[in-house]
Amino acid sequence: MPQFYVINNPLAGSGRHQEKISKIKSQLTFASWQDTTFAGQATRFAKKLAKDLPDVPSENVILAIGGDGTLNEVLNGLLKFKRHNPIPIAYIPNGSGNDFARAAQLGDANESLSRLAKIRSSQLLTVGKIVGDAPKKQTRYFVNNLGIGFDAAVVSQTNHDKWKARLNKFGLGSLSYLFSVLKVFANQNSFPVTINSGDDYLNFPRVFLLTLTNQAYFGGGIALLPEAKLTTYGLDLVIAEKMSFVEFLGMFLALKKNGGHLKFKKVHHLKMSQNATIHVRDIQPGQADGEELGNGSYDFQLTFEHYPFWI
User: Fold this and answer.
1) Which residues form the DAGKc domain (predicted)?
2) Is residue 167 within 8 Å of 176, Cβ to Cβ?
3) Looking at CB atoms within 10 Å, which of 37, 119, 155, 239 has the fewest?
4) H helix and E strand count, the chain
């Protein structure tokens, strides 16, 4: 049996899941349990575990409990300390959007807890990595997606919207993303993007959404790229050019129709190569797995690699 080192975000899902946490504690045998109290603390906890636990083949597993942002923090913490034997990540979704759980078909918190008892080995999933200005100099990993422009503005609007907490109380957290979409669209300006990927040099002068994705979903279940899978070794890029509200509404409605939005003339889908570069010459918001990167310009190199997940 694995030794679970738990990192739990008690504020995930607006803190409405205490009964689930009590059940997890009563049914799960764990080596340690750490609750976060502020943003970024999960990264610190994970980095310390990566540093302190012996770098040898073992049954140690880091269990993240929370939303996609908590999972992102744990991933980044573990990868801040280089190991020959990376520690697998397990996950119990307890947030609002839960896009990773949806893509990995983990089910809800209760189903994910039951699955843990049946897993015997980790599997390798692809994680993306950016190095450069985003918007300040940094290295950042992501397992779901990284967005600049419209989707990042929606994430920011949703995270700071009083309705998110209210909807979470009724298990309707995903609706908060939909409300934010309409609020953000009118204020989102276009911006120029330059991409170097393999032999391709591409210039898009009027982008309003740029999303690097590792899986099908973003924004609490919106099917951005239905064909994308966490196990595929590679990353995809979806770009949408500035469009009228009528065009946007048509594209948004097509998101629910198995990728119909990808047929729109102003929507582009690209397979990204290792060491591709992306340059955004404008001040824009950014997000990685629902975690805000802040506002700024972007100039970074993109790579991808495998990491073990206990799912």
Assistant:
1) 1-134
2) yes
3) 37
4) 9, 15
Question: What is the model's pTM?
Answer: 0.90
Mind listing the pLDDT tens digit for each residue in 208-232? Answer: 999 999 999 987 788 889 999 999 9
Note the pLDDT of residue 37: 96
Q: How far apart are CA 65 and CA 74, in angstroms?
A: 10
Q: How far apart are CA 10 and CA 262, in angstroms?
A: 38
Low-confidence ranges of the chain (pLDDT < 50): none
Write the CATH number of the domain with boundaries 127-309. Answer: 2.60.200.40
Report phi then psi at 23, rounded to 5.
-65, -40
Closest CA to 213 of 235, 197, 232, 231: 235
- Ranges in the chain annotated CATH 2.60.200.40: 127-309
The structure tokens listed for 125 are: 């999933």
Q: Is the peptide bond before 88 cis (omega within 30 degrees of 0)?
A: no
CATH number of 3-121: 3.40.50.10330
Residue spans in the chain of domains classed CATH 3.40.50.10330: 3-121
